[in-house]
Amino acid sequence: MEQGNVRIASRESERSHRRTLPRTSVVLCGTGCFSAYLLLASLVLCAGCNEPQPPVDDTTPVRQVDRPAEAERTVVEPVAAVPAGGFSPAGITILPLTELTRPTDGQGQRLMVYVALVDAFGSQMKAPGTFRIELYDYVQRSADPKGQRIAIWPDIDLTGSAENHRYWRDFLRAYEFAVPAQIAADKTYVVEVTCLIPAGRRLSGRWTLRPGD
Prior knowledge:
Immunoglobulin-like, elongated, alpha+beta, 3 helices
């Protein structure tokens, strides 16, 4: 009797095992397929990571990254530099109006000298300074026509605004100086004007004064 019961229980267990076997197989198969998919994906990613990158040389174009408008507005444009001393007196010129006048209306003979200060760009300008006028004999056929000095007049200080404006002739853009002179009107002379700039520089110019000028 016991043997019969054992056989019956064995058969029922075998039937139950047969019923659950397909389900277990399906679960195992699904798990295996998913694991295989993950393994395949990992291999593909690793293969992509190990691919050799193309070499980059100096000729490879670099993509420009667009900058925001705020950064562009903060760029400061360079300012052109002004030449040092460009707007300060750089030279002195004696104008051709310079002449020796004849005595008239009770006034003695005078030497009229017109002097222009020029900057580094050749423009005539008004500037403070102390002027000195000298007169020399003219030496013919000489590399330096300035001969013996005949006369020298007191320095004319134009560092003050009032005195500077007094001698300034705006329509000529030059200074006008009138100094007394007792010289022969039929000779040739050399007029030399020196200007001492407050900065310590000395400018000088010459003019040949011929008879009839």
